[in-house]
Amino acid sequence: MDSNYLPLWKALDAPLLSLEASHVELLSLLTLFLLTLVALVTPRTARQWVRHLVQVLSLAVFFYVVYSCLGVFGMIRNVMHGTTLIGSVFTEAFFWMSLPLAVIAFSITTGPYFCGWICPTGTFQEVAAILRERLVGLLPVRGPAPGRRPPVWVLILLGLVFAGFLGLVFWLGTTKRFYVEDSSLYWAACLVMLVFLVLTRAVDDEAIRALRAVSFAIIFTTSLLATAIISPVHFAFANVSDPASALTTLVLVVASLFIGRAWCRYVCPWGFVMGKLAKISRLRVQAVGACKACGTCERACRVGAVRAGQVRVDACQFCMACVDRCPQGSLEVVDTWRHDSRRSRESR
Questions:
Q1: Phi and psi at residue 332, to the nearest 5°
Q2: Ordered DSSP codes for 229-249
């Protein structure tokens, strides 16, 4: 192999834009999805360990194998770019569309496993939250408790984070010219402000989740204009110097110390797509028994998708922590397609 193509940290150092090579990334992703299905036959006591194992394997795949920009922006952009190539360069169109479409297909036929088990952006946030819970145990990682404000020092700390972020952005602006693709920094700035507003009770946690639709509309529009905005974690997909992407990743990880998976909750455009697909997916977490209002499921959910024993489908990331920890067994993974077909036959 030519030394120019020896990898720095990737198994594949350059994107291979042909059907012959694109199967390497696609096969890796399909393997990860097949591993997630093990969750359906894994005992509750071991399921979260299996999930964490899949998350670790996913990080390895994304860092060492996947070269396509499968970030929260790239998934949308890749599909749209591949669509424009249909009819002219079919193999290249397949390369750009295959991975996002595989995620969509699995999300519909199984469930939103991608967000809760595979997505590296989500995994980074969860690692930060777990470390905070284990080592500090002070900040409201899963979200603000109803009717309570966090301590003043928490807000001051968040303000210092925001000030430090602005300082780094200013410093970067003096060392390099910013381009449109660096606009992920705007998402990072918005994320910090949204976390601050939620913690101070200036806005409602569930209400501002609608901003994910705005985020999706912006990425969709810029993709139509053939303008690429680089995702967080992009620096891990390519052997390039990408300080804007790295800084955005740092901010979303820090934000998750204050509110669990804050990026996923408020600004992730791909999360918006996954939330819509979850409403028609085959497998969903649903309440099947009487709830005793112990609050265990709510505390187990890091995205605030469970309230009073009921699961908000468009916010659920299918981690199944609520199912595993419910002492009454009131939450289960339900095959909604089979249930709906049975109900349809009974109504005839």
A1: -140, 160
A2: -PPTTGGGTSSS--HHHHHHH
Contact 331, 323 (CB under 8 A): yes
Question: d(Cα 126, Cα 130) in Å, to the nearest integer?
Answer: 6
| Rounded-to-integer distance, Cα 119 and Cα 59, Å | 8
* Torsion angles phi and psi, residue 210, rounded to 5: -65, -15
Domain that holds residue 25: 7-120
Instruction: Sort residue 295 into left (φ over 0), alpha (ψ -120 to 50) or beta.
Output: left
Q: What is the pTM of this model?
A: 0.83
Cβ contacts of residue 275 below 8 Å, gap of 6+? 112, 212, 313, 314, 315
Does 14 fall in a domain? yes
Question: How many domains does the chain contain in total?
Answer: 1
* Tokens (6 digits) for 208: 């501002």
CB 13 within 8 A of CB 5: yes
Q: Is residue 97 part of a domain?
A: yes
Beta strands in the chain (DSSP E): 283-287, 306-307, 310-311, 331-335
Whether 281 is in a domain gets the answer no
For the stretch 184-243, pLDDT in tens is 888 888 898 888 888 888 788 888 899 999 999 999 998 888 787 888 887 776 655 678
Residue by residue, DSSP assigns 201-230 as TSS-TTGGGGHHHHHHHHHHHHHHTT---P
Q: Domain for residue 76, yes or no?
A: yes
DSSP, res 197:
H
pLDDT, tens digit, 9 for 90 and up, residues 31-82: 888 888 888 888 888 999 999 999 998 888 877 777 666 678 888 888 887 8
The Cα–Cα gap between 250 and 262 comes to 13
Which residue reads 């700390």 in tokens?
157
